[in-house]
Design a protein that fits this description.
By secondary structure, this protein is an alpha+beta fold. The chain has two helices and five strands, in the order βαβββαβ. β3 and β4 form a beta hairpin.
């Protein structure tokens, strides 16, 4: 079975959440089925918010992308996510 690379812009809930804290929260709770690539890019947004651009490798199977998005949206430190890139590996 193949794999898919997804890139998401992940926005924090508050300006007090640093990019490192945001990354740690995602990594600590991420399912072992998914892999987050090292050193996500920091992305200045607006009103002092700094998000991250995270790259995730997931299995190419039905429902995997939805599962990842549901997980990211369920984190209390995450305000919103936006997919910016997707490709098959």
């Amino acid at each position: 079975m193949g794999e898919v690379l997804l890139v998401y812009e992940i926005r924090p809930e508050t300006p007090e959440t640093t990019p490192k804290e945001l990354e740690k929260k995602v990594r600590d709770n991420l399912s072992p089925r998914f892999k987050m690539q090292n050193d996500p890019e920091e992305k200045p947004l607006f009103f002092g918010l700094i998000g991250i651009v995270g790259q995730f490798i997931i299995p190419e199977e039905d429902g995997a992308q939805d599962e990842l998005e549901d997980f990211l949206n369920s984190l209390e430190v995450v305000s919103s996510i936006q997919m910016t890139f997707v490709t098959r590996l």
